[in-house]
Design brief:
It is a single chain. Helix content is 24%, strand content 25%. The protein is an alpha/beta fold and 560 residues long. The protein folds into four domains: 37-114 and 225-343, Rossmann fold; 127-222, Alpha-Beta Complex (Glutamyl-tRNA Synthetase, domain 3), CATH 3.90.800; 356-470, Ribosomal Protein L25, Chain P; 481-551, Ribosomal Protein L25, Chain P (Beta Barrel), CATH 2.40.240. The structure holds adenosine-5'-triphosphate (ATP) and magnesium ion (MG). Adenosine-5'-triphosphate binds next to helix 2 and strand 8.
Length: 560
Amino acid sequence: MAEDLFKKPDGSDYGTTMAGNFIHDIIDQDLANEKYDRPVWTRFPPEPNGYLHIGHCKSICLNFGTALKYGGGCNLRYDDTNPLSEDEEFVNSIEEDVLWLGFKWDNLLYASDYFEKMYECCEQLIMQGDAYASDESSDEIREGRGTITVPGTDSRWRDRPAEESLQIFRDMRAGKYKDGEMCIRAKIDMSSPNFNMRDPVLYRVLHATHHNVGDEWCIYPMYDYAHPLEDAIEGITHSICTLEFEDHRPLYDWVLEKLKWPDPPQQIEFAKLGLANTIMSKRNIKRLVTEGLIDSWDDPRLCTIAGMRRRGYTPEALRAFCESVGVSKADNLVEYDQLEYFVREDLKDKVENRMVVLDPIKVIIENYPEGKSELCEIENAQDPDKGTRMLSFSREIYIEREDFMEVPPKKYFRLYLGNEVRLKGAYFVTCTGVDKDADGNIIAVRCTYDPETRSGTPGADSRRPKGTIHWVDAATAVDIPVRNYGYLACYSDETGRFEYNPESKTNYMAKAEPGLKDAEPGERFQFFRNGYYIVDTVLSKESEPVFNEIVGLKSSYRPK
Ligand code: ATP
Ligand code: MG
């Protein structure tokens, strides 16, 4: 497959080829059979009732990626047929998220703009005798629907004359009924093994203000009736959705068949993406916000697109991850590690190193002259083209608390009494002792340095200490707030069960090289030996950057 199919007009990469999945096999077949005389057209149809998450991200990549691959188009459509749960706030966040991921819709549409057409189609179904007005309450309808083993029973309104049903439907629209007093049901088959075909409700009465059409309507179409019409009206060819709609496909097809819609779209289902150790369901996210355990929908620990953006994940990484997950009919619960792998891969050549000590302990270099200071040259990245910067070094420095141990275990190559380590970009130092307070807590580590070992000095490397540790000069270090993150959930599964991880966030006041005070919101760095970090765009105030851990350095995930 030609790679440049996925280039944007400016030559940059969309990063999602979504190569060779079963959905594309179906499309290839349809193209070979000339099933449609219109271009391949997909849609991403979120309901604006919450923020998008990593699962939606996969659907976005799949729908937009498919349109790109086949030179067709993809609509961003708000599936806004339920006025009760929808909100303008979510509409705006969805557009921002899709654009941020690198995709541009061919049309921006609202399902609610088709309410008139949907209404007309329902009148047609009623006149044809394929739908009827029913006085039953939702409880009565549920009871009449039967069970898996027991067929449903025909509604007593099933044979209501079409003219009467039509008049009722018009009266429903005119506001003559209260919520739940009347509905329109499809006349299909009450003994169908498929529950969705047992005379499903097509329209309900609901006196509610809609975010787009206001109070224009007091009847609203049900999802299963509205969705095929939305797709058909837009000329969608392949309507890609998740597996739970497989059993709804016969109803999708029934609606369009009864309306004699020419060349109706083909619904194709794929398995939802599940991610371990996180929380995706809106209900659970809302609960954590209410309980104050997370900030909001964009908490950096969440796998909402807004949260992942704030966390510092890149669109390139998310698209590469979605591609790696693939598209299938089998449920998949993916390890978080796999997502982190792609984030790390994307960042490793993009960002510069900085020296930051998260949990500092002071080191006093006894034989380094008091009052003296010198500049050490530190590479900005592995790539020599990225240049170097000069950091000050003097008698007192900070190192990570965990880089010193009084009683070292085997294979501990960092600082302990009598051991020599390399200070990155500076000198070799040997530990000579510790200072403790009255309670026995270590307040400083004492060392001596070897002036002959300054980094870059010829021959200095002949001794090769096993450990290299990072440091910052105590005289010039700045304090920066840093937040490290663990998984949001100790446990989570496909059913939405989860256990919140109380250790999912650790706050540090780190000691950093001075330049980091000037870092701009959104700027990313690798903190040497600690991980990748971004300046938080929400919490950072002018000259007071707050850093989020994007991802640590180590991974157990290996790509196949
Ligand atoms: P949730 O309740 O988790 O927010 P949803 O299905 O209610 O999900 P919609 O706004 O209806 O959210 O979804 C928009 C599109 O995204 C749909 O086509 C849906 O199938 C798809 N989608 C939602 N969740 C996932 C997921 N986990 N994996 C892949 N696609 C998904
Ligand atoms: Mg939904």
